[in-house]
Amino acid sequence: MNHDQNRRTGDPGARPKKFQSPDPPSGHLSEPFAARGAEVRAILKEQDFRFEKKWGQNFLTDANLLEAVVRDSGTGPGDLAVEVGAGAGALTLALSRAAGQVVAFEIDQRLRPVLARTLEGRANVTLRFEDVLKADLSDLSDPARPFRLVANLPYYITTPVVMRFLEGGFPLKSLTVMVQKEVAERFAAGPEDPNYGAVSAVLAFYGIPRICRTVSRNLFIPRPEVDSALFHLDCVRRFFPRDEALFFRTVKAAFAMRRKTLVNNLAALGLDKSEAADLLKALGFSEQVRGEKLSPADFVRLSDALSERGIKG
After folding, report:
1. CATH of domain 244-308
2. Would you call 53 exposed, middle or buried from its count of C-beta atoms within 10 A (0-12, 13-18, 19+)?
3. Where in the chain is the domain with CATH 1.10.8.100?
4. What is the rounded (10 degree) CA torsion for 231, 181, 45, 36?
5. 310 Cβ partners below 8 Å, 6+ apart?
6. What is the CATH class of 3-234?
7. Phi and psi, residue 101, nearest 5°
8. CATH 3.40.50.150 occupies which residues in the chain?
9. Taking the model in full, what pTM does it have?
10. Minimal CA–CA distance to 90: which of 221, 180, 212, 215?
11. pLDDT level of residue 21 (50, 70, 90 thresholds)
12. What is the pLDDT of residues 173-226, one digit of tens each?
């Protein structure tokens, strides 16, 4: 097993689990909830719901997988869970059984009658029929009310949603998102992994990333063309650069042109090649080093050195 895989799972001896088909009923899964997965599918059929490609709608209804997502998210009785993309409400329902309170966003107004049926009697669920990228989220900003973000995200809004919550100063405890497998691999990648890039370094800045499990495309309705993976970020700050904005500028510059060395890419921050080479040498790096070799901690050292030279974010 390679080191990148160890780091992504957060367990030196484990691979991400894969759901290929529904597991046998778990000892933690009550029969009433197991039945609700079939109920959700029946409600969709009853309401003659038509899936919209523009919303990237691929719903989860397998009860065992839903329970696993909730468990991997760490959601417990005292938690506020925020869901993006309630869909048919299957994950919302699972979260409502584990969390103290659930706030679920859904952009598709046509799902109102579906969700009214799926979530009937769930008093701890608040539905917001809004575009989460445009919605006023100030009510989620109270530091005394931290929350866990849990979502099954369509490809086209994955990074914007994740970054809105991470960059917005919200009191996030964790972030757990079902995304395309290749996206999760980019999110969780470490230095020297071919998937490592600016988004990988930024996510590691905000917390501890890992892939919890990969998920077969066969567990979604309608069936997408690719497999997915559940990405989790424990939002624990480990890095404290002198100038946070400069840290992000430095990461962006380092990966702006991947084939070029840092000596060349640092020109975007106002350094000529000679200055950049001297700076990298002083930090113990080769003049030929590229951005993908640097860890988030290395980028902190580099941005701090740039800050000392008067460069600002």
Report:
1. 1.10.8.100
2. exposed
3. 244-308
4. -40
5. none
6. alpha beta
7. -150, 145
8. 3-234
9. 0.87
10. 221
11. very low
12. 999 999 999 999 999 999 999 999 999 999 999 999 999 999 999 999 888 999
